[in-house]
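Support case: user asked for a sample of complex input and structure output to validate their parser. Sending the pair below.
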Amino acid sequence: MAVLPIRLFPDPVLKEKASPVEGVTAEVSALVGDLVDTMRCSPGGVGISAPQVGELRRIVVVDVSAHRRGGQEQNHGLLVLVNPEILAMGGKQVVREGCMSIPDYTANVQRAQWVLVDALDGNGNRRIIESLGFEAVAIQHEMDHLEGILFLDRVVSVKTDLFRRKQYR
Amino acid sequence: MGHFSLSVVGRDRPGIVAEVTRVLFEIGCNIEDSTCTILSGQFAMILVVAHQKFTSVAEIDPSFEPVRKNMGLTVSLHMLKDEEVSREKGFTGRPHILSVYGADRPGIVYSVARELARYKVNITDLNTQVVGAKDRPVYVMVLEVDIPETVDMKELEREFDKIRKELSVSISVRPIEALEL
């Protein structure tokens, strides 16, 4: 277990597509553990993807339970998603997002209100997860990283919507 | 290195940004920070620019003469002290959004801003518009503010309550919840 350095834009790894994980081996489990440690170490961090630590593999970790608003909504606690696929999505919500890979910037992004995700969990077991609200935003943001898409590609409005970030806790 | 604030205002039409930034590019100014918008049909630009060598307004200002003459834009430049220019935002409180709206009448912005200043609340963004039907104008103000940890929100609410009654406006306050991902 270790806290890994976060790759910062314009590191080209952030614009690349990640490859599927062949199986949840001990080595993959170790990476998942490092991702969890790295996410928890970042102030207010509620999600991370493997490309953000320079690993182009389809792994994301999300945990909104400690977030002020996310924790009040329905959530799954720590979610490890390996090779996640969105089966269905619906509704709309606009949420202000920040990204550890683009410090000091937040912007309003439009996301689906709910998602249905097919993924392997940290033990390699297949799970179908339905997620709503903030947790669903976190999943969509992290899954975008697997495609090399940043939240800046999805900003919906600039007028009064861009806010130079301080620390959100 | 010299830093300057640059503001440009003129009747809105396509090409203003292109002309102003062409001048900046040609004289070697970097745009460090900027915001531009349309206010009542006027395009308004405010920028912080930096130049490696120039350290006085006089070295830059003449380059904007053609823009002033040909496009009818008002261009003003001011020198900034290096120590006053910072990329650090330095906000240490709790970010909130305020919506204030009601029938248009004098004093709405001032009343709210006065109380915020009294509590040392920093306004980090502010947008006002008159909307609604011609004969029933509605004033809408949306602010982003940084409320110091030391401010008692209940006390601030009581001040807003006075403004609500006095000016018949609605005021809602909510924390900005950002997701750090």
